Amino acid sequence: MVSWIISRLVILVFGTLYPAYSSYKAVKSKDVKEYVKWMMYWIIYALFTTVEAFTDTFVCWLPFYYELKIAFVVWLLSPYTKGSSVLYRKFVHPTLSSKEKDIDEYICQAKDKSYDTLVHFGRKGLNVAATAAVMAATKGQGVLSDRLRSFSMHDLSTLQSDPDPPHSGSTQPSSAAQHRTRSMMRSKSESHKGTCN
C-alpha cells in the first residue's frame, strides 16, 4: 500500500505536474523544438496511462511493479535518455502513420453513431417524460374529479333525503336546512383533509 501511494505521488508530480509546467514554458517561449519534445512526451504519457489502467488491475502483485513504473516515468522525462522521444520515433509514429486513415475513419463513424444515438435516446427520453407527465396529469385529474363528485353526490343525496321545509312563500330554503347543509359539507371536507394528510 505504501509503495502504491509513493508511486502515485511521484507519477503525479514528475509525470504530470512538471511536464505540464514545462509545456507551459514551451508555449510561452514559442520554441518549436520544445513544442515537439513535449508533444511527444504527452502522446507517450497518454499511452502509458491507458496501459497503466489495465496493468494496475492485473499485474500489480508483481514484485517491484510500482518501482518499475516510477523508473519508467523518470526514463521518459530524462534529458539524457530522451525516453519519450525514442519511444515515439521508433514505435508510435510509424504505427500511427500506417494506421492513420483507418483511425480517422473509425473516429468519424464513432462521431456519427454517437450523434445518432444521442438524438435517438434524447427523443426516447422526451417521449417517456411527456408520457409520464400526461399520465400524472390524467391520474391527478381523475382523483380530483372523483373527490369533487363524491362531495356533490353525497351532499345531493343528503339534501334529497331531508324532509321538505315548510314553504313560507319564498323559494329560499329555511335557515335550519342551510345550517345542516353547511355543517355536513364542513364535516365531509374535514374528513377528506384528514385522509389526505
From TrEMBL:
<keyword id="KW-0812">Transmembrane</keyword>
<comment type="similarity">
    <text>Belongs to the DP1 family.</text>
</comment>
<keyword id="KW-0472">Membrane</keyword>
<dbReference type="GO" id="GO:0005881">
    <property type="term" value="C:cytoplasmic microtubule"/>
</dbReference>
<protein>
    <recommendedName>
        <fullName>Receptor expression-enhancing protein</fullName>
    </recommendedName>
</protein>
<dbReference type="InterPro" id="IPR004345">
    <property type="entry name" value="TB2_DP1_HVA22"/>
</dbReference>
<dbReference type="Pfam" id="PF03134">
    <property type="entry name" value="TB2_DP1_HVA22"/>
</dbReference>
<dbReference type="GO" id="GO:0005789">
    <property type="term" value="C:endoplasmic reticulum membrane"/>
</dbReference>
<feature type="region of interest" description="Disordered">
    <location>
        <begin position="156"/>
        <end position="197"/>
    </location>
</feature>
<feature type="compositionally biased region" description="Polar residues">
    <location>
        <begin position="168"/>
        <end position="178"/>
    </location>
</feature>
<feature type="transmembrane region" description="Helical">
    <location>
        <begin position="38"/>
        <end position="62"/>
    </location>
</feature>
<feature type="compositionally biased region" description="Basic and acidic residues">
    <location>
        <begin position="187"/>
        <end position="197"/>
    </location>
</feature>
<dbReference type="GO" id="GO:0071782">
    <property type="term" value="C:endoplasmic reticulum tubular network"/>
</dbReference>
<dbReference type="GO" id="GO:0071786">
    <property type="term" value="P:endoplasmic reticulum tubular network organization"/>
</dbReference>
<keyword id="KW-1133">Transmembrane helix</keyword>
<dbReference type="GO" id="GO:0008017">
    <property type="term" value="F:microtubule binding"/>
</dbReference>
